[in-house]
Structure formats: C-alpha cells, structure tokens
Amino acid sequence: MPDSAVTTLLSPEFVRRLDRLDVVSRRILAGKLQGERRSKRRGQSVEFADYRGYVPGDDLRFIDWNLYARLDRLFLRLFMEEEDLSVSILLDTSASMNWPTPEIVAQASSDPEGESSVITKLDYARRVAAALGYIGLVRYNRVHVYRLSGGVADRLLNLRGRRPIPQLLDFIAAPVSSRPPSPSSLAPALRQFALEQPHKGVVILVSDFLDKSDLVPALRYLAGDRYDVFCLQVLSEFERDPQKAGIVGDLRLLDVEDGQAVEVTITPELLRRYRETLDAYCDHLRQLCLKRDMVYLLTDTAVPFETLVLQYLRHRGLLG
Description:
By secondary structure, this protein is an alpha/beta fold. The protein has two domains: 3-29 and 85-315, Rossmann fold (3-Layer(aba) Sandwich); 38-83, no CATH class. 34% of the residues lie in helices and 25% in strands. It contains eleven helices and eleven strands. It has helices at 3-9, 12-18, 65-71, 102-107, 121-138, 165-173, 186-196, 215-220, 237-240, 268-291, 305-315, and strands at 37-43, 47-53, 75-83, 86-92, 142-149, 151-159, 201-207, 227-235, 249-254, 261-266, 295-300. α8 (215-220) links the parallel β7 (201-207) and β8. α5 (121-138) runs antiparallel to α6 (165-173) and α5 crosses α11.
C-alpha cells in the first residue's frame, strides 16, 4: 500500500491493529458468492461437515462410494457452505460535514507545536470509513462504498481482498466537489442505495444526520430484514459545545447547505437551550434507530477515532 494512502487516513501502526478485527453481523447474511465467512447452512464448498442418508433425487456426485463399499449403504457427503458477507459503507459528504470552517479552526486551541488538533466531521468520518473498509477487505468481505450528497454522489463497488485497498483509500480521500448552497436530504440518497443494493448485508451509515427533512422516510429505506444497519452520528466537538470555539456576541449564522441566514445573540441562556435541543434531537434519532432494529452510536471529533474503532464499535457489536 502506498505510504501516502496510509498516512492520510490510517497510520501503519493502526493498520496492524486493524488486521486482528473483523466485521460482525448480528444475523447470518447470505451472499451471492462463496467467501471466507462460514455459515450454519450446509452446501457445496470444500470443507466437509457431515453425512446423511441418500434420498432418490440427490446429486450422485456427493455419494461417498468408499463408505458404500464398507457399509453397503448410500450416504451423501455434506459440506459447510461459506458465505460472502456484503459490507456497504455510506459516507455522508454533504456540505454540513465539512465543518468546522478554517476560521473556526484558527480560533481553536493549538498544541505546543502550533498545529491545530481540530479536524472536520468529514475528515473524521473518512478515517472511520477507511478503517471499516480496510477490515472488510482483509477479511475477504465484499465491500461497497457510497459517497452521499443529496443523492448517491459516487460509489465504489464489489471490492474484495487486499489488492484494492489503495483504490478504496483514494476513493474515500478524494476531494468533494464544491456546489452552490442547496437543501440536502438523506432520503433520496438512501432510496437510491436501496434500489442499487438489494442484497442482504451490513450497512454502516456515517453522517452528522443534521437533516432539516424528516428522518423517518430516510431510515425507512434501510429498515427490514435485508440490512443489518449501524448508524454512526458524527458531530463536531464545537457543535456539542459551541463555547469551545469562542463563539460570543452578535452573530449572523449561515446554513452551509441551503444558504439560510439567521441573526442571533449568544447568551448563556441561548447556549443552554441549544444544548437541550441538540440532545433531544440525538435522542430522537436514537429512538428511530431502536424502533427499526438499527444500532445507533453518537460520537464527536474530540474522541480519538482509534478509540472509536477499537473500543466503541467493538462494544456495540459491529467489530469483533
């Protein structure tokens, strides 16, 4: 793997720790191909599982003739069928993800060397997507990556094995094309994904979920038996606590997605109401996921993404 691809999203030290992990589904998910994932069903792969008595109509190729010579009875050899697990990573690349702005970052505290430790939600989400995609590939799962922005902006499909890892990382790290402000909604993107990906599999949606539209129709496209869904909400540390960004006084706030502006005066009471509203919104999203048997996890950019992957995602059952 090229050094530049690693150091942009994943450090070599972290990659070595990822090699010990695997994507875990809460269900047995059947894929189209026979892969590295063993299922509880018996099929026609190379690993022997058991015998059963011959029944007229069975495939004669699987009769154990050596056993017949010894016992004078017909038995069929059964094999453990191995399944190809489909892992789809949906990465929100809408304008709200590319926050905080450079101006906000410049106001943030810096380390002694003068380098800011603050990153955008999109950069954080890219690293998470890269780690999950890497794990899926080295475990020979079938990996698909979608970049969402209003609809499905781009996709990279049917990756498997170590060879396409550089291609995966380059796709995730690719710049997002700038667009004029326009309302962005998850619903059209998730609808398009559901139409394009009808097969069963694990779906990991990484987004800030800051959507002015109703999230119920959006999540409905991922509900049901087809997908094992994990919703990872990524917020900026400044969104969870605006005081960290030094936001004070009279401000004119501009929505980066639809251009709507509002003038506010920052007061302790306003900040309190803001935090209560944000907490209520995140809890609403959690309840929506819970009702649809989806796993919900909230994080912010102050949490080291290595900690998120190695601890939080393992604790919530996505990795094992």
